[in-house]
Amino acid sequence: LVPLGDLTGLSSLTEVVATGKEQLVPVGPGLLGRVISALGEPLDGEPLSPDGIVGSYPVNAYPPSPLERSLISEPIQLGIRALDGLLTCARGQRVGIFGEPGVGKSILLSDIVSGTDADVAVVALVGERGREVREFLEHQLGPEGRQRAIVVVATSDRPAIERVKAAYVATSIAEYFRDQGKHVLLAMDNITRFARAQREIGLASGEPPTRRGFPSSLFAVLPRLLERSGPGRVGSITSLYSVLLEGDGTLDPVAEEIQALLDGHVFLSNELAQRNHFPAIDVLRSRSRLMDAVVPPV
Question: I want to staple 207 with a disulfide (CB 3.0 to 4.6 A). Which of 91, 97, 154, 215 is the partner?
């Protein structure tokens, strides 16, 4: 059992009552422009309109069957010239943005959310500092970007299970819009903090640490989460995950695992960032594995 909130007032005599159902998140067009928590509760001071909520989706859903996915054949515009021109991505592709602290991962993600031609954007802020949330909403995303975006927030002070659930809730919301035939952009900042929260839960439950202190359950959870995005029968989820690197990342098991699971990787250069060159994309080190499928040969 993992608590979803504060443990104040609980004891060994506290009764635990099963609800008999899994966690669900409300979905519908009424979520556009809203900021919600990992429990699906609004954080922007207004209740969710019943008229804009059409149902609910399970938070811990399974990835779609491989044979139910449509083939990837169309490019997606991300609004970043270095990516659109040299590392073209496809609708339904999953891409990691790798970089050390301070090289501009969050700003690059917000620029992509604002400049993409996707129908809907779902943003998951996992383990972010509290002050950065409002800065992201008002300065980086802006009023126009918020109109077609849903932001799921679990700051660094929230319980580990809530930080984990934020990634699942954002993915479930993106799945709803994909099932409606929309082309969705899912941006998660960042998946490294999701992995660290999962490590907290695993170690607290008695799992033995393996690679760099991460329990083996993390490496089973990651593919199940990442495989939920991608193309569906009618719509698609193009997902971008920012990944925090330690040094050059060669000994980082989380970054190594994520890079192996995704369809492309964008590396941000610390050297370019020090020269004040943003976005600090290292084009030669980066790769889009689906570029050949959506860009005709010259």
Answer: 215
